[in-house]
Specification:
The chain has 148 residues and is mainly β. It has one helix at residues 105-113; strands spanning 30-32, 35-41, 57-63, 68-70, 77-79, 82-86, 88-89, 95-97, 125-134, 140-146. The chain has one domain (23-146). A three-stranded antiparallel β-sheet has the order 1-9-10, with no helix packed on it. A three-stranded antiparallel β-sheet has the order 2-3-6, with no helix packed on it. Strands 4-5 form a two-stranded antiparallel sheet.
Length: 148
């Protein structure tokens, strides 16, 4: 049987966990676009419904193949580079199409990879960007996006 010991909390030191993955190692590497799908996501920047709730935003979700896997069993998950690009919709949330404005992020992305239409994006070579963001809890999280 273990004996309970009292430890001064001031003497407790942080140690680095061994099961994390440094996603910054993927920064400036290349991959190909594996999947494109149209999804709706919550956004505070879209029109509101009659109750004042934001209307979901239609987006084009572009994803790379799996770059690495973290964890085991039920805790296992795949990590990919991915990005959401807003699509055009009317004030009621009906999907209209993709934007063609030269300042649109989707248009900039397509121009950078040599695609003239979203259907041409699959299979294109893209650069990965490791994007760091403060989680709001004082912790910096790294996300894998695309450079354009």
């Amino acid at each position: 049987m273990e004996e309970n010991k009292t430890i001064d909390l001031d003497s407790l030191q942080p140690v680095k966990s061994g099961d994390g993955v440094d996603l910054k190692k993927f920064h400036n590497t290349t991959t190909v676009v594996e999947k494109i799908e149209m999804v709706q996501t919550k956004s505070n920047f879209t029109a509101k419904d009659a109750n004042g709730n934001p209307i979901p935003q239609w987006c084009l979700k572009i994803s790379s193949p799996v770059l690495t896997t973290v964890g085991e069993g039920e805790q296992k998950f795949d990590i990919r580079a991915s990005e959401l690009f807003n699509l055009s919709q009317d004030k009621n949330g009906k999907l209209l199409g993709y934007p063609t404005n030269k300042d649109s992020n989707l248009v900039k992305f397509m121009k950078d990879i040599g695609a003239n239409h979203p259907k041409e994006i699959i299979g294109k070579t893209v650069f990965i960007k490791a994007h760091e963001k403060d989680s709001g809890e004082g912790q910096i999280r790294t996300f894998l996006k695309f450079k354009y």
